[in-house]
Amino acid sequence: MTPNPPPADATPEPDGSDVLVQDPNLPPVALTEEEQKKDAKWTPAKIALWVAIALLGAVAWTMIAIVRGETVNAMWFVFAAVCTYLIGYRFYSKVIERYITKPDDRRATPAERKADGKDFMPTDRRVLYGHHFAAIAGAGPLVGPVLAAQMGYLPGTIWIILGVVLAGAVQDYLVLFFSMRRGGRTIGQMARDELGKIGGTAAIVAALLIMIIIVAILALVVVNALGESPWGVFSVSMTIPIALFMGIYLRFIRPGRITEVSIIGFVLLIAAIIAGGWVAGTDWGYAMFHLPREVIAWGIIVYGMIAAILPVWLLLAPRDYLSTFMKIGVIVMLAGAIVLVRPEITVPAFSEFAGGELGPVFNGAIFPFLFVTIACGALSGFHALISSGTTPKLIEKERQTRFIGYGGMIMESFVAIMALVAAISIDRGIYFAMNSSGAATGGTIEGAVAFVNSLGLTGVNLTPDMLSSAAASVGEESIISRTGGAPTLAFGIASIMSSFGGTALMGFWYHFAIMFEALFILTAVDAGTRVARFMLQDSIGNFIPKFKDVSWRPGVWISTAVMVAGWGAILIMGVTDPLGGINTLFPLFGIANQLLAAIALAVVMAIVAKRGTFGWLWIVALPLAFTAVITITASMQKIFSTVPGVGYWAQHAAFRDALAAGETSFGTAGSVEAMEAVVRNTFIQGTLSIIFVVLAIIVIAVSVLVTIKAFRNGGGVDTEDPAVPSRRFAPAGLFATKSERRIEAEWAKLPADERPESVRH
Question: Which family does the record assign (predicted)?
Fold first, then answer.
């Protein structure tokens, strides 16, 4: 059998990939350019389909942004999002693939070249999509849009949908591809290779510090969702043994039986939710699982330490696959329910808080704080860590990076838009009662009613009965000040889904959603800790080479312990924060996350410039410029604003002066201890804000200089790993094309002992 010829439009690489020779005894490892064109050939039916998608999307956007009256039907949000995503994936990501990445399936990926059964393993693209999506989809797409609903529905909708197509998915795809071409190197190590010692060191330090903040906030959202909720604690706890069982089942009992184990896992999950309601209703269950937030926080810290050390196949991969099955299923189910129920949205396009700096949910003007609050729903630096952490070490073929990187981020954005719709579909009074801090509401029904009604919201008249009835309907003692976004999203999902089963099922749907959200976030916590360990090992490895060996157990344990101690300390600080940890820490999380995105895009811009791809450099430069302006502006406001509700240092000074004056309570802090905690926390937050923005500016500046130098020289030094011929084949997208199915059939005819090993978790 003759080797596959190189694609006609492929640019010869200096590493010799243009002369890769395939083993003639194996079937083809890649499609030819002709086969790719044949599979993508336009037909009248395809043209009609894409015209229909474009028209439906245009109508949906018109209804949301232009025609809007006193109410807007929620189904238009679903149609606007889905149509825009489909067009972005089909056309915009194809432009990136054709002119920037230029994948070559004849090259072996790191998963194939370095397969070790631990961190490097060729993994089925569908399972890897699940693992990647589960790892990137943490608290951000759930929390950010819910908090951003304070500003009204339109600003968040525009940024979530358009931002992901032009910025978020672009970053994820390019970081994943370039990391894969470099042996799965972390974004920090890539920065050091591409930007030199100064820019690289700044990027590494920034990435490590920002990762600590990000994982801490992810864990804090879980704590707030599960705090004093025995039903939720039991159900989420049960997902750990379920995931372990699935890992062992796929590894040793029934290898490769993905559908089989999916059904088993789903049944066990539903059983865990139903059993959670029964356990919570017993005296012993209530006593065992009704845990204070501090205890849950310590439990998550221990979990993060263990999960980051275990082999990826045992807990991380099956748990991510299991949670993705739940995540995507729930979001698609919610979207379908919205289209069928068609709830009317009464929240204004721009709310009463869109024009000011202060608000009951979070403080800051719509520009720039809407963008940093939504965070992961549109663009996330955390994703760059995953895309250069676990995923590039598992990807089977180069062309799969578009499906996993760009496609995975689009799905996360869809989660964000569904979270926004769920938040704006509930009563506005209940929304603000749930998302305002305990210091503002006093944590009581009476306090919440008085506070919300004092906001002067049009058409809002909250009553005690509304809050008590809402809590009773979902089986909770209280829904007052359940900050963090997750409870609000769960309440919105339960309200919409109860249209099919009646209010009697509200409690089930609420706790089903809580478990779904906790699964979302815990997978990001364990994956984030694992990636943080990789980053720290890479960094220490520059001085102690032994640490670069990711299989060296002492290095693994030390690096994991250091990173867990870092984010665990921030988590405990957030849990005990008198101002409401999520309300004060989330702006720092959002800014840090977006600054990391700017750093990742800066590294990518330098790589693209060094490749000599100057005609398409704007695809990276535009989102980098926008993100840099947003995040640097937000950082400056948090550092220099004289408004205590906005500026960390202004708040620090106000509470410090109150303590010096002998005050025993001040603002929302009801005791001297609480005031001292605010002074301590704002000092930490303000200091980190300064460090983050300085490091990001250094990286961006160095990247611009490297890009200019590359432009003048017509390119730069290639830092990709040498190309090695691949000895395996796999389809590029979710569904195999006709040509791909033909090649798969050829591989299936090979004797089992001649086929390359494949781990298909």
Answer: Belongs to the peptide transporter carbon starvation (CstA) (TC 2.A.114) family.
d(CA 265, CA 28): 35
Q: How far is CA 760 from the centre of its chain?
A: 24
Report the alpha-carbon distance of residue 621 to residue 707 in Å, rounded: 10
Q: What is the pLDDT of residues 360-395, one digit of tens each?
A: 888 888 999 999 889 888 999 989 988 998 899 999
Contact between 99 and 613 (Cβ < 8 Å)? yes
Q: Which residues of 570-597 are buried (b: 16+ CB within 10 A; e: fewer)?
A: bbbbbbebbbbbbbbbbbbbbbbbbbbb
Amino acid at 73: N
pTM of the model: 0.87
Q: How many CB atoms within 10 Å of residue 44?
A: 7
| DSSP label at residue 254 | S
Query: What number of other Cβ atoms are within 10 A of residue 737's Cβ?
Result: 17
Please give, one letter per residue, the 3-state secondary structure of 727-739.
CCCCCCCCCCCHH
653 burial level (CB within 10 Å; 0-12, 13-18, 19+): middle
**Own/partner pairs, 730-736, CB within 8 angstroms, 24+ separation:** 730/122, 730/124, 730/125, 730/396, 730/397, 730/400, 731/125, 732/105, 732/125, 732/397, 732/399, 732/400, 732/402, 732/403, 733/125, 733/400, 733/403, 734/125, 734/126, 734/129, 734/403, 734/407
pLDDT tens for residues 24-66? 888 999 999 999 999 989 999 999 999 999 999 999 999 999 8
pLDDT digits (tens, 9 = 90+) for 241-259: 887 887 788 778 877 677 7
Q: Are 488 and 221 in contact (CB under 8 A)?
A: no
pLDDT digits (tens, 9 = 90+) for 680-708: 888 888 998 999 999 999 999 999 999 99
Q: Is the peptide bond before 368 cis (omega within 30 degrees of 0)?
A: yes
Torsion of CA 175, 181, 184, 190, to 10 degrees: -60
Residue 695 CA, distance from chain mean position: 23
Structure tokens at 562: 């250091």
Q: What are the tokens at 485?
A: 């976004």
At 303 the pLDDT is 85
> Cβ distance 165 to 92 under 8 Å?
yes
* CA pair distance 178, 175, nearest whole angstrom: 5
Q: Tell me which residue of 485, 527, 275 sits closest to 391, measured CA to CA.
A: 527
Q: Which helix (H) or strand (E) holds 558?
A: helix 553-575
Calculated CA dihedral for residues 332, 308, 296, 329, nearest 10 degrees = 10
Based on the number of CB atoms within 10 Å of its own CB, is 420 exposed (0-12), middle (13-18) or buried (19 or more)?
A: buried
Banded pLDDT at 600 (limits 50, 70, 90):
very high
Query: What pLDDT score was predicted for residue 323?
Result: 67
Distance separating alpha carbons of residues 638 and 329, to the nearest angstrom: 38
Please report where in the chains the tokens 């090992």 appear, as a residue: 537
Task: Judge residue 352's burial from the number of C-beta atoms within 10 Å of its C-beta, 0-12 exposed, 13-18 middle, 19 or more buried.
Answer: middle
584 three-state secondary structure: helix
Maximum distance among all Cα pairs of the chain, rounded to whole angstroms: 86
Q: Can you tell me whether residue 596 is helix, strand or coil?
A: helix
Rounded Cα distance, 273 and 231, in Å: 8
User: Cα–Cα–Cα angle for 8, 11, 12, nearest 5°?
Assistant: 105
The amino acid that residue 462 corresponds to is L
Q: Find how far residue 168's CA is from the centre of its chain.
A: 10
Could you give the CA distance from residue 715 to residue 612 in angstroms, rounded to a whole number?
5
End-to-end CA distance of the chain: 31
